[in-house]
């Protein structure tokens, strides 16, 4: 979560994902808190509310994608094409 802590707060909402195709990636912890990364933004939703930060280099998003389980890695590779 060091990456999350280093991301600057965003003054605008993340872009809406397309209807078809890649729609971002999500990480959920055992308490139900969720991080959704898409389009250079990361949004955290938890008991305290929601917060969006900028992920300009998509470092957070890419780290989540490479940490995906093996059965998801094929989809991660398709995203790069």
Strand tally: 4
- The total count of helices amounts to 3
- Label the structural class: alpha+beta
The strands making up the biggest β-sheet line up spatially as 1-2-3-4
Number of domains: 1
What order do the SSEs take from the amino end to the carboxyl end, as H and E? HEEEEHH
Radius of gyration: 13 Å
Q: Stretches where pLDDT falls below 50 for ≥5 residues?
A: none
The overall pLDDT average reads 88
Q: What is the strand content?
A: 25-35%
Question: Major sheet: size, sense and barrel closure?
Answer: 4 strands, antiparallel
Q: Summarize the amount of helix as a percent range.
A: 25-40%
What shape does the CA trace take?
globular
Cα distance spanning the termini: 28 Å
Name the features.
81 residues, alpha+beta, four-stranded antiparallel beta sheet, 4 strands, globular
Question: Could you walk me through the main structural features you see in this protein, from its secondary elements to its overall organization?
Answer:
The structure is a single chain. It contains three helices and four strands. A hairpin with a 2-residue loop joins strand 2 (34-38) and strand 3 (41-46). It has one domain (2-80). The model has no long low-confidence stretch (mean pLDDT 88). The protein is globular. Strands 1-2-3-4 form a four-stranded antiparallel beta sheet, with helices on one face. It is 30% helix and 26% strand.
